[in-house]
Amino acid sequence: MIAGPNAVVRVIDPGMLCTVQDLGRAGYGAMGVSPSGAADWFAARAANRLVGNPDDAPLVETTLTGATFEATADLTVAVTGAQAPVWIGGSPLASWRSSHARAADRIVVGPVALGARSYVAFGGGIADVARVLGSFSTDVGGGFGGRVLARGDSLAIASIVDRGFQLEYPPGCSSIARPVTLRAMVGPQSALFGDRAVEALFAGEFRVGTRSGRQALRLEGDAIASTAAMGAVSTGVCAGCVQVTGEGLPIVMLSEHQTTGGYPVPLCVIFADLPRAAQARPGDVVRFERADAGAARRALYESVEMLRSLRRAPVVSDASMETRLAQGFFEGT
């Protein structure tokens, strides 16, 4: 099966927020440019690997309500990330598995049941998005790069040759669970808070606020008693930095974070757990768990090994696929 250079995917319904992302633009923080890119780096890499793309190929990130697309040619498709129902041409598809879409098939990513963001990769990658500052990613807040997709948009797909078989990840590859546990190391400005306030962060239970987005998780709950924010000096921040506001509430930086922050950083979420933070949605309970550098390295190694666990998928009928979906085959919880 070959998709030619004129193959496109039409956007029938973009849902709440549907953007083109890759792994982000590094090296421009000094210019005030956010790295942006896929909020869940693990799911984005996995989706691209399922369809034979490079890890950093541009793909689509959907938010909460899902999205609907239509293929104009035969394509290979994979959906990863949040737990959400997926259909291709009216037939159910398990997440974390590649599949064929035929010309005129609709690819439907339904509203999420658990998590916040789904990733849709097309074999060959998206070909008609301009590279801005070295990346195809969409900076939603900055209004540049990539594309915020709208109803009626089309995405050109590069020429590909299908390998003739499908791939899948084993059950449990997703780390989405509730409550959301984020492993974190003590941050660079923890001394401003004192041991008692830092321990209160690790012992506390917070909820994701409705003002959260690709920039950050804004958490609500019992305030951390500290005057640290009053004496803080603006400094550089990265994804995973946990800032504490003057009201004593934590904010977890995500992929589209600002490049500097005026609030102090008592904790830093480890890189391997950024996908968990990216999949937290308003109302979810969030807890921080203490980690050290050794635990952070081991967790990242485990994530990399999971990305390598890609395997050839068995051929299944629509009926058996429905059975697997009903049993929560790819729940990962």
**Major beta-sheet overview:** 7 strands, mixed, barrel
Proportion of helical residues: 10-25%
The neighbouring-strand order within the major sheet is 15-22-19-20-17-16-23
SSE string, helices as H and strands as E: EEEHEEEEEEEEEEEEHEEEEEEEHEHEH
Low-confidence blocks of residues: 325-333
Mean pLDDT, rounded to whole units?
Answer: 89
Q: If helices are DSSP runs of H or I spanning 4 or more residues, what is the number of helices?
A: 5
Instruction: Assign the structural class, choosing from mainly alpha, mainly beta, alpha/beta, alpha+beta, or little secondary structure.
Output: alpha+beta
Number of domains: 2
* Content of β-strand: 25-35%
Gross morphology is globular
- Quaternary state of the chains: single chain
Task: Give Rg in angstroms.
Answer: 20 Å
Number of DSSP strand runs: 24
> How many angstroms does the end-to-end distance come to?
35 Å
Q: Can you tell me about this structure?
A:
The protein is α+β, with helices and mostly antiparallel strands and 333 residues long. It has 2 domains: 2-170 and 310-326, no CATH class; 180-305, Cyclophilin, CATH 2.40.100.10. The chain is 14% helix and 30% strand. The protein contains 5 helices and 24 strands. The protein has helices at 41-50, 195-203, 274-278, 293-307, 318-326, and strands spanning 2-3, 8-13, 18-21, 59-63, 67-71, 75-83, 86-88, 91-93, 98-101, 106-109, 114-122, 154-156, 160-161, 167-168, 180-186, 206-208, 216-220, 235-236, 241-244, 250-253, 260-261, 267-269, 285-290, 311-312. The strands form 6 sheets. The chain has a 7-stranded mixed beta barrel with strand order 15-22-19-20-17-16-23. Strands 8-7-10-5-2-12 form a 6-stranded antiparallel beta sheet. Strands 3-4-11-6-9 form a 5-stranded antiparallel beta sheet, with helices on one face. It is globular.
